[in-house]
Amino acid sequence: MDSSDTDFDVLIVGAGISGISMAAHLEAQCPDKRYAILERRERLGGTWDLFRYPGVRSDSDMHTLGFVFEPWRHEKSIADGSSILEYLNRIVDERGIRENIRFGLKVESADFDSSTARWIVTVLTAEGERKRLTANWLYLGSGYYDYDEPYDPGFELGEFEGEVVHPQFWPEDLPYEGKHVVVIGSGATAVTIVPAMAGKAAKVTMLQRTPTWMFSRPARDGLANFLRKVLPEETAYRITRWKNVVMQDVGFKRAQSQPEKVKEFLTKKMQEHLGDKYDEAAFTPPYDPWDQRLCLVPDADLFEAIKSGQAEVVTGRIARFAKDAVVLEDGREIRADIVVTATGLKLAVAGKIAISVDGEAVDFSQRYYYKGCMFSNLPNLAVVFGYLNASWTLRADLNAAYVCDVLNIMDAKGMDIAMPALSAADEAALEEDDIFDFSSGYIQRSKAIMPKNAVGFPWRLNQDYRVDRKQMKSDPVDDGILHFRALPHAPASDAAPARRTTAGSTT
What we know:
Structural class: alpha/beta
Oligomer: single chain
CATH class of the largest domain: Alpha Beta
Helix content: 25-40%
């Protein structure tokens, strides 16, 4: 390999939504930059390729989970995994991104060399060979899950003779027709799996320790489909996207300011959907809406499965596993041929990559977020951690556009390094804030490893897209906090000549 194969302006980790967004923004905003996407799997798509459980779909509408620069063209706004993959693959092919994806490379470590302004990135190939790549910038678009191991609640399976499956590692062609299935959990994954398996299975039971707030909406967005008929596609998409952004934001803030009214509204809607199958104990959580993420039930499919008798919801704690049943603490037994442990995922910071600067390991729990994108006193590094109360892609697009702005200013100034500078004195004066005001188990279990969050901008990861969008656009990139530095004797680049593309705008 020559330097054109190993040295880049930007290395992107992950070929999922975040990585593809960054690549598309680079193609449009920084067409002279050489980049590569490093993907550990053999296919792109990230979450949407990894998860193969029945019914896998978005729990956000695709007019906000879709990219700002590419309209969602399908009739269904709540889309299945295969449709999302089709969307991502089309973008990658149409925008010339695929040629820059390097599959089968797992990033193990990345060390920033301040003397050369280069990240030295060690990757492991599928064949077990370690290779080294270098880049001026590192963009972490690998998501926030541990893709190697899910959360383990520590079930003792005892004498259970059936099959136990975690949604993260769903076996291909799992036979469940005519079988009794127990899905442990009540989050978004469980709410998806239960109605998808109902009908083919003899009975599907969603076994929950505590209920979850749920709401239903049509999988098809009537306004979006109408607008596409009477307006240019891009215009219709922008209108629908902003309408949904506003609705998400208003709903979230109303739940915070008027929780009792929102509880009443959600309860009434569930009662209407379930009729005489409504069980107050099963559908009344002990927390306020949006203390945990609301679970979407598109087209009321879960409620319909319950009404038909093909599915049920049981609330209780597991005492033990019998040969063919799950036994609860109150003595009830739920027949089970298959147990699905939809008990949540583990979070991971920076894709579990060993990050260091000049050989010194970086502890992200001791760094503050900067504009929800970079970190205090870390050079030429950006990351995507999407919204918990809105679509992930909203944050991914904001961060990608911002990093491109930073790169262009660096070029204009002749700079090699950009770093959000936070002195010890300034850090001591910051008021720390709860990084995620959510009671969800996977969030609470992971707080100790998460970066710090301040009350005020820019040292925070915010959960308000409309505020973030305004601040990221109005706040100057060269804000006096982001410090730029040129190398005293920057080595001449031996990279391949810059290439230009004809990719469309990402504004």
